[in-house]
Automatic annotation (TrEMBL):
Keyword Transport: no
Name of the protein in question: ATP phosphoribosyltransferase regulatory subunit
Superkingdom classification of source: Bacteria
Domain Class II Histidinyl-tRNA synthetase (HisRS)-like catalytic core residue range list: 26-281
InterPro entries (alphabetical): aa-tRNA-synth_II/BPL/LPL, HisRS-like_core, HisRS/HisZ
Natural source organism: Campylobacter californiensis
């Protein structure tokens, strides 16, 4: 009996690893970030949406091994929200059915197995494929918070096309196994791996297979449209989010991902969107 009481006392004031607790300064900074983001997105013509914690569709967004799953009243499998994009787009297209409501934002957590709680600010531009719009909104928010992170731009089409040309599995890119990719000992692939600036794309485009020219050109156009000074081209990057299929961007600082976004297609709608990772921003602003 004494042992059970001791175990209860051990966990009485503990929180699970991966979960979040905000108090004092961190709670204040979190609220300021969310308020600033809400103001910017509202000014940009977005409306807010808060989606359910439970979802039937999360396997379309992330790997099933990351989901916290259980059964509903009818024994259908559901999961805690691990990503917001698919649910936001489907709710907007199927339930609201309005041509006017195409720009939505949300400020809410997602949950990943075994006990990760991730707060984020996200937005979806349904039917809008110009990713530079999302990129500039994120850059504006980060700038107003006093942050100047590195911007990385990529095109998910490039890894997929390389896999088709060289008969590789996309798992190689998903796991970031660059050494295995470069072990192919292909000159144009090595040049792609070293590519860093938009100006270098024109030269590389002269030697790559023709299937890669258009994806590289689109990547160059996004880089130039961003008008962002601290920029890197990363053509071999592959996002693990299942719905991103074309252009993609990330803002990074001190090995932390502050935000990311890209193009995707859900239910036939070519769209774009982004997520800003609140906890990463709090760490940057409090340090």
């Amino acid at each position: 009996m004494r042992e059970n009481t001791q175990n209860l006392n051990v966990y009485e004031h503990e929180i699970p690893i991966g979960s979040r607790l905000y108090f004092g300064k961190s709670a204040k900074v979190k609220r300021e970030i969310e308020q600033k983001a809400s103001e910017i997105l509202t000014d940009e013509g977005f409306s807010e949406m808060v989606t359910p914690f439970f979802s039937y569709h999360q396997h379309l967004s992330v790997n099933a091994t990351q989901l916290l799953r259980f059964s509903d009243h009818a024994n259908h499998q559901i999961s805690l929200r691990a990503d917001s994009t698919v649910d936001v787009v489907r709710i907007a297209l199927r339930r609201l059915k309005s041509d006017k409501g195409k720009k939505w934002f949300y400020i809410q957590p997602v949950f990943r197995y075994p006990s990760s709680e991730i707060y984020q600010i996200g937005a979806e531009l349904i039917g809008e494929s110009d990713l530079s719009i999302s990129l500039k909104i994120v850059a504006k928010l980060l700038g107003e918070l006093g942050l100047k992170p590195v911007l990385q731009v990529s095109n998910i089409e490039i890894p997929h096309t390389i896999c088709e040309i060289l008969n590789l599995s996309i798992d190689v890119f998903e796991r970031g196994q660059i050494e295995q990719i470069l072990a192919q000992d292909v000159d144009w692939l090595n040049r792609l791996a070293l590519l860093k600036s938009p100006e270098e794309i024109d030269e590389v485009s002269k030697i790559v297979p023709k299937e890669l020219v258009k994806p590289l050109t689109n990547l160059k156009e996004l880089a130039k449209a961003s008008e962002y000074e601290n920029l890197r081209i990363v053509p071999l990057y592959y996002s693990k989010m299942r719905y991103y299929d074309k252009l993609f961007f990330r803002f990074l600082s001190q090995n932390s991902i502050l935000a990311g976004g890209g193009n995707y297609e859900i239910d036939g709608a070519q769209s774009s969107g982004f997520a800003v990772y609140t906890d990463a921003l709090i760490e940057q602003l409090i340090d």
